[in-house]
Amino acid sequence: MVIKGISQEQLQEIRRVQEHFEGLAGKIMSIEPIDNGRINKTYKVAISFEGAGFKAFIFRAINTHVFKNFVAMMNNTQIITEHIRNKGETTLYFHPVIGELTCESPTVYFDAQTQKYWTVCDYIESRTKNTPESEADFLALGRMIGKFSLQLSDLPKEKFEQIVETIPDFHNTPARFKTFEGILADDEYKRSKTCMEEITFLVLRSYRADAITHPLERGKIPKRVSHNDTKLNNVLFDTYTGLEKTIIDLDTTMPGTVLYDLGDAARYACNTESEESVEAEKVHFDSQKFAYLVKGLLTTMKEVITQREVDMLVDAAWIITYEQALRFLTDYLDGDKYFSNLVPDENGRMYNRETKNLERARVQIALLQSIEEQYCELTQMVGTIWNQIQN
Ligand code: GN1
Ligand code: MG
After folding, report:
1. What is the pLDDT of residues 336-358, one digit of tens each?
2. CB proximity list for 303: less than 8 A, separation 6 or greater
3. Are residues 161 and 233 in the same domain?
């Protein structure tokens, strides 16, 4: 058995998880922790089945601090994946638990010993990318966002209504700002004095916080099922063709707008630096990459996207970047309760970096500035792309 970086206790736990799900009765051949998320603990587990070869699975312990309503989250996932699978398209398959339920969800096993909640899904053979490498990657990401939206656009009304907001106000930027104000007023960790410049920057822009929620609540832009976490590493690429296959990490899929998805993708992928960079001064919003992303999205959604949505694509990038800056700075002021600040030191040893979430906020602020500087060009560019696609 090949095991990388896990303890005996973790191994025992994984074995217990294996026993409690359908379709996993075989011999564990390897376990590999997957560490690219900041929220859930995830492992890739390969199991060999007598006479039937190997299969890999994703075992995941849900972060119940973030996903308090994980029963609804898994119910959403079930509705979404079933709908996509029924179209014959690739999506995640979650295994049901065996026997008596251990919690309210039929696809979640509660491990009483560790008090953790686990899910298991099939591993989809594919390639993932943390950073986009080429024009093709940006086009693919844009197309994938559009495709996901389209895949769910014909959900029957009663199914759509069953999809609940698992994290209320997730992309409600005005609500995020209110939270920020509250935490700032308390200043429990006495950190506000170390980030007055960043606080001022965000407060000065708060009048625009409702740029999406205002038209959305008034029906000026359509409510669509959105993924809400469209970082490139959630897109699976076909190993052979290199084309987008599906999008994973469906935890935050909720009723929303496609603007959230395009905005988040742009925030993450069009940044010339990584989200984790400590050199905010190098951050730049790459307009060419944004153009590819927009082109991918609009070619896929051209039959359904509204003019108002197209007009708001640059705002979408701005608002989601603004919101992420708020979220990181709020968490910094709040003592790093949400986003882990555990990072490696120069010797690779993990430690809690007190300024990590402030540094993350600085990167988002620099990106926001760069979007603002290019606002007119970006808007014109979207118009040109849209014209070309329509003609
Ligand atoms: C979180 O865990 P990860 O990296 O998939 C967060 C996103 C943030 C992102 C910032 C449920 O996603 O909203 O944009 O960190 N997910 C949740 O890196 O809060
Ligand atoms: Mg995620």
Report:
1. 999 999 999 999 899 999 999 99
2. none
3. yes
Distance 202 CA to ligand 2 centre (A): 24
Q: How far is the CA of 206 from the centre of ligand 2 (A)?
A: 26
Q: How many structural domains are present in the chain?
A: 2
- What is the domain-level CATH number for residue 276? 3.90.1200.10
- 100: CA distance to ligand 1 center in Å? 32
* Ligand 1 atom nearest 338 alpha carbon: 19
Please tell me if the CB atom of residue 166 comes closer than 6 angstroms to any atom of ligand 1: no
Position 38 confidence tier, pLDDT thresholds 50, 70, 90:
low
**Residues 247 and 353 occupy one common structural domain:** yes
Q: Report the alpha-carbon distance of residue 298 to residue 278 in Å, rounded.
A: 34
Q: Which residue has the higher pLDDT, 246 or 67?
A: 246
Q: Concatenate the DSSP letters of all residues of 333-368 into one string.
A: HTTSSSS--EEE-TTS-EEE-TTHHHHHHHHHHHHH
208 CB less than 6 Å from ligand 1? no
In this prediction, residues 23-46 reach a mean pLDDT of 85
Does some domain include residue 127?
no
Give the atom of ligand 1 at the shortest distance from the alpha carbon of 40: 2
Angle, CA 137 vertex, CA 374 and CA 277 arms, to 5°: 60
Q: Contacts from 82-90 at CB under 8 Å and sequence distance 24+?
A: 83/151, 83/152, 83/155, 83/159, 84/151, 84/152, 84/246, 87/151, 89/151, 89/246, 90/124, 90/236, 90/245, 90/246
**Residues 252-310 pLDDT 10s:** 999 999 999 999 999 999 999 999 999 999 999 999 999 999 999 999 999 999 999 99
Both tokens of 17, joined, read: 């998880």
| Domain end residue (candidates: 88, 122, 156) | 122
Residue 40's pLDDT band (cuts 50, 70, 90) = low
Q: Are residues 143 and 117 in the same domain?
A: no
